[in-house]
Amino acid sequence: MTQIAANKILISAPVHDCLPERLRTIGLEVVYQPAITYDELLESIEDIEGLVVTTRLKIDKKIIDAATRLKWIGRLGSGMELIDEDYAVSKGIKCLSTPEGNSNAVAEHVLGLLLNLMNNISKSFNEVKKGIWLRKENRGMELNGKTVGIIGYGNNGSAFARLMEPFKVTVLAYDKYKFGFAKGYIKEASVEQIQRYADVISLHVPLNSDTYHLANAQFFAACQQNPFFISACRGKVTDTAALIEALVNNRIAGAALDVLENEKLDTYNSDENQQFHVLSSHPNVILTPHIAGYSYEAYKKMAEVLLRKLNLV
Fold first, then answer.
1. What is the spatial distance between Cα 25 and Cα 283, in angstroms, rounded to a whole number?
2. pLDDT for the residue numbered 5
3. Are the C-beta atoms of 58 and 39 separated by less than 8 Å?
4. Any catalytic annotation for residue 282?
5. How far apart are CA 287 and CA 256, in angstroms?
6. Quick check: is 234 catalytic?
7. What is the DSSP string of 101-119?
8. Are strands 170-174 and 72-75 parallel, antiparallel or unpaired?
9. In 3-state terms, what secondary structure has residue 257?
C-alpha cells in the first residue's frame, strides 16, 4: 500500500495522543483543533492536505470545495453519514473509516445492555436506592438458549455475534450486502424471519436513505416474540415515536439505546422532551450517551487503524 502523501494534517476532534505524535514523528505538520467549529474549519481548510474527523462536524460540499489541497479524510469510528463521500471521491479525495477499531467495544457494550435489561439490573437498582426490595417482581431471564436477531452484519454486528457463542444462542443475522457468513450457531436470515423468531433484536446498520426509520411502526408490529430491542448504531435508524408505541403496547419487552434521534438534549422541542421523559422514566428502558464505541482501548485502536490505512506505520 502506497502512503497517501499529505504534509499538513488537521485533526478536528479529540483523539488518542498516538495519532498526532506519530504524524509529527514522521515530519508532518499537525494542526490539532479538537473543538474547531464548522465555520472555523471552512476558513482554515484551504491548505489542509489530510483531515481527521469523528461525528462532530459535517463535511459537506461547501467544505470540500474549499479544501483545494485535501487528499484524504480519515473518519475515526464507523458511519460516514456526515461526510459527502461521493462528492469527495469525485474530487479525488480518499475517504477512510476505522470501524475495526471500536467494533469490540460496541459489541461488549451491547452485550452489557442486553444482560442489564434481561436481568432488571438498572431497574432493581433504582428501586433499591428508594428503599424498595422486590425479588419476585425483578426475576430475570437467561440469555442462554434464546434466539438473537442481528440486523447489519458488518464489523459491529459480527463482533456482537461472536460474543454470543458462550451463551449457546441461535443468532439470526441479516445484512443487505453480505452473504455466505453462516457458521454453526450463526444463521443467515431475512428481516422478516428475525421479526418472527427473535427474542432479541439488535441493530448494527449505518444511517442512510435505506435505513432511516428502519425500526418504524410496521417493523415493531411485525415482531412476534415480544423481543428486547437494542440500538447502538445511529439514532435516526429508529423512529422514536414508534418505539414508544411498541413499549406501551407491549410489542417489545424493553429497549436499550446508546443513540437517540437527537442527541443534543438542550435543543429539544416539547414533543422531543415528552418522548425523552417517557423513555428515561420507563422501567424497561436503558439509555446511554453514545458511548458504546468509546472505550479507552477503542480510542487508541481507532487511531492506530487510521495510521495503518494511511500506511503511516
1. 51
2. 60
3. no
4. no
5. 6
6. yes
7. GTHHHHHHHHHHHHHHHHT
8. unpaired
9. strand
